[in-house]
Amino acid sequence: MEACVQETRDLLSIFTDDEILNTRPMTDPTMIIAMKFLGKLEIGMSQIMPGSAPSVMQQIIQLSLLHGMSPVSPIGFVHLGSYMAKLGDISEGYRYVKLSRSLLDKVGSRDSAGEVISIGTQVRAYVEPLQATLEYHNEGFAAAMSSGDVIQAALNLTLICSTSLFAAANLQITLDKCVQTDKFLYERKMVIFMIQNKCLHHSMFKLIGTDENPKDFSEEEVKILATNNSVMTSYYFQKAFISFTFRMYDDSKHFSEKYLDCIANTWANLLFAHSYHAFYMGLISFWLARKSGDEQQWHERGKRSKLALKKWAESSHWTFENKWYLLEAEELYCNNNFDRAKLYYEKAISSAKDHKFVHEEALAYELAAYFYLELGDAEKAMEYFLLAHEKYHEWGAIGKCNSLFKFVESRFTPSSASG
Length: 419
Prior knowledge:
Largest sheet: none
Structural class: mainly alpha
Order of helices and strands: HHHHHHHHHHHHHHHHHHHHHH
Shape: globular
Radius of gyration: 23 Å
């Protein structure tokens, strides 16, 4: 992947953005048909054969520069931006994502708009405030439906659901969106997307605390789960996320290990979910490092996650600063550097509040409370548990509130809470 992306960057290095935008239109009928084929191939291969997908992107861009821009050309540029960002160059990736949007207007066709918006928005979320990017996916869904691109319509809808969860949208409203999305996917028999959306359903039902449960996986869905690494990764992440959220140590360890076993051969594109995976795997890793016998291995995993979030915070302090601070606090806790850990827990709480991530404000309060409880400061721990409960309730996570209340009730007596 790296070599293919670098070759394409080198090819484009002699062109300015204006020169690319003003490239002549493609007129050769054979080339236009070839480009349509490559456009269809790109999105499928990015999930099924991620290692080969960049070569399709490269061919789209090469043909565009040699024979002119076609309605498919923006697809090549948006995937290039996504691959660049996945490899660590968020700034250049963002540049080519914006260029692909401008190309949509230049080629005079919106046929590829659904894909350009769905893939591009996931990169934009690493630069722009996360909450602001939700509307882009609504635009992408409308564009995809207008052009008859049902796959991209489904992808935009699925990404709206997952991004809404990450962006701290009210849980009940997010669940309602997921239910509507499920209906859309079921009617069109889009099984892979259905599985991923169902994984979200399980998590949201648990957080909200409803007695309702999503339907079990069908036989077909179970087969896909067993063979599709991208779907499997989503499944195990949601399991690990919920296990950690509800402080189920053994399940957190089990599902994190399952997640790590299948993460290698997944989507070639950068998705916002990758950052959330890194964030929660980092938190879980530092927790396991304090509790398990494999302290060094888990500590190193947590440190890698922390460094990834720190780098992403350089491109968007709005979205990633609080996450980096919280991972920093958890590592300092692991290293017994308690004074600096206190400082970073406070920074994580303040940043989450300033940037409207109420669920992560709750999480920072909760983890700081466990930290203070371990230090023997029961009064501070109780204060922060109550603040965490308040913020989880504000998010709509009543199931989590009930779980936290039971824990606090079991650990605190009037005498311990008062001193």
